[in-house]
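Quick one:
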Amino acid sequence: MEQAGTHLADSREISAESTGAAVILRVLRVSLHVGFAVLLLVAVIRLLAGGVAGTGWITLLLALLLATVYLAGTVLEKRHAAHHARFDPRPYSGWWLAGVSVLWLLLVLASADFVWLAFPLFFLQLHVLRRRLALPAIALSTLVVIAALWFHNGGAGPPVPGGAALQLPMVLGPLFGAAFAVVTGLAYRALFLEAENQRLAAQELRRTRAELARTQHNAGTLAERTRLAREIHDTLAQGLSSIVLMGRAAEKALDDGDTAVARDRLRIVRDTAAANLAEARNFVRALQSPDLEGGSLVAGLQRLCAQTEAQSAAHGAGLHCRLDVEGVPVPLPGTHQTALLRAAQSSLANVRAHAQASTAVVTLSFLGPDVAMDIYDDGTGFDPAALPAPAARPDGSGYGLTSLRDRVAALHGRLDIESAPGEGTVVAIRLPLGEAAGSAPAPATGDRT
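Output:
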């Protein structure tokens, strides 16, 4: 949350800076366009006031054409700035500027009133052209203005007294105007580039945040799938496996004519199916084992030991299972209770399926800041070092130990397996409680059974 808040604050800061720069750029751009329109309108009005005759009509048409070309370029640029999916006129901006400049030169040749359009033209040259091309273009435009003023004010005729004094403003005015335009234009360009960089930074930040959110969503989805896989393996899959085995045993008993045994096997099938149905319904609710609803972990483990004995007896194995509770029971959080119960279910299922044991003991120990559980059996045992890498078997099994390790690791606990061929097996689990136990519901005490 802190990182997300930092990203959001950075995004807002960049957005605010970009908005401020965008406002300044918009004001400058509007001022440029308004200035160009006003200067062109004043020149046209003076042309009309002097009377339109002969070549005057051509000059008026050129002025209208210049206004049309200029307006088309600005409108296309604004439309693309508002919606980048629209036509992008930037690749053609050089040709547009060339057309505006040619029309301006023709108008300057016809009337001196159009020379003042050079000042907004200076800004266009700085904005559209590269700096190494813009500065020479401005210098050339300044010379055109000076030459046009000199030409239209009778500079081609014989010199008159005081002519040099009259020509000095024609030179200094365009020079100062060009210098001011260059300084202002460079400042505008620097501000434009800064705003563009901020816009790109904000866009990259938004893209990064979207990618981070997508990654977190995918990670959460994967974690949820893993959690559901553990729950299904430790509950429904084991229950359905027991149902299949009990069904086969009942079928064999019916074939042998032993209806009492068949009825006992079918009762186990019914009870197991009912328990699995309760587990499935709890998936829709809180994914909490029904063995923990309305009771304690100790009571749930006691029922599990009784079910293990009944299922083993149904298979003719004669496995005796008991629960021992050591220490003073303390309230356990729901996550710890569920993890320990699932661990006992998975371990006892392995004992029934593989250990060929006669005794299984589940020891639940309350050790102050920790809670521990040991599942011992006196079966055939195995070599823990020879266990294969965690992987699913082709039939979909093989998740038990991996699921158990994941459950314990999620609670920052420790899992140890002690076994040797012919010496039984001990699965030892230790979970830290910290402050979690203090907020759990009141404990239900359990004695050694």
